Amino acid sequence: MLSKAASQIMGVTLRNIATVGGSVVSRFGFSDLLVALLCFDVTLHFYHHGDISLENYLNDKTIKRDILTSLSISKQSLRAYFKKVATTALDYAILAVGVCNQNGRIRIFVGSRPQIATSAPITLSNLPKAPWSDSQIDAIAKSVSKEIAFGDNFRASKEYREQLCHVYVKRGLKEVLK
After folding, report:
1. CA 53 from chain center: how many Å?
2. Which CATH number do you get for residue 74?
3. Per residue in 79-94, pLDDT tens?
4. Which single residue of 26, 115, 164, 168 could bond 97 by disulfide (Cβ 3.0 to 4.6 Å)?
């Protein structure tokens, strides 16, 4: 999943100069890599602020002007799905979706909305017992797409992004539940 997300970073020129740390610390709303990293248990190690999870860092706007010394990805077994939707391979994403299943724990992240990557905590905390029917998967995907706030920009409207989210979360859930 991480290699797929990294391989889809615009062109070779940008991919060769971009760094994981730079993508994380900058909190870019268009970062495909953040969506993929959020599916894993990632711990960031800062010089002044110490250790913090990636998800907490992205939600905590008080951490500024610090040095990211390293990051750790805990070794884990999971099924994962990543999809970047863009006009062309060399364009910024219209939407990026990451879905993962770690021993029945489902996590869903959506980025390029055009804000920073986020999840749908209300939907994820109220998931029905698995296994799920196609109609339940569709309802979960629809709930995720309604819970997450989308925005407009010159790439796409918020309504279009909401529809993309519904479709790709549904596909992602089907993939990780196989």
Report:
1. 14
2. 3.30.390.50
3. 999 999 988 877 888 9
4. 168
